[in-house]
Amino acid sequence: MATKHWSDLTPAQRAAVVALGAAQFTLAVSAWVDLLRTPAGQVNGRKDVWAAVIAVNWVGPISWYRWGRRSP
């Protein structure tokens, strides 16, 4: 299979790539901000580990919101 380059994509495909990238970036930034604002006592595990986990594509931020915070 040949590698696709940006110039090979249609305008709709380019827009989809940009939109998905922006959504992923926004989700990660919101998770990092939430991590910073959450007291260490309310975090399941270490904050530095969660900061690294959040950097893992879609899985990290979703994992933070699902399993990273303790219930009040």
Automatic annotation (TrEMBL):
The answer, when asked if Transmembrane is one of the entry's keywords, is yes
Q: Which residues form the Cardiolipin synthase N-terminal domain?
A: 27-69
Q: Which terms are listed as keywords in the entry?
A: Cell membrane, Membrane, Transmembrane, Transmembrane helix
The regions listed as transmembrane in this protein's record are 15-36, 48-67
State the InterPro entries in the record. Answer: CLS_N (IPR027379)
Q: Which Pfam families match?
A: PLDc_N (PF13396)
Give the membrane topology: Multi-pass membrane protein
Q: Where in the cell is it found?
A: Cell membrane
Q: Does the keyword Transmembrane apply?
A: yes
Report the superkingdom from the record: Bacteria
State the protein's name.
Cardiolipin synthase N-terminal domain-containing protein
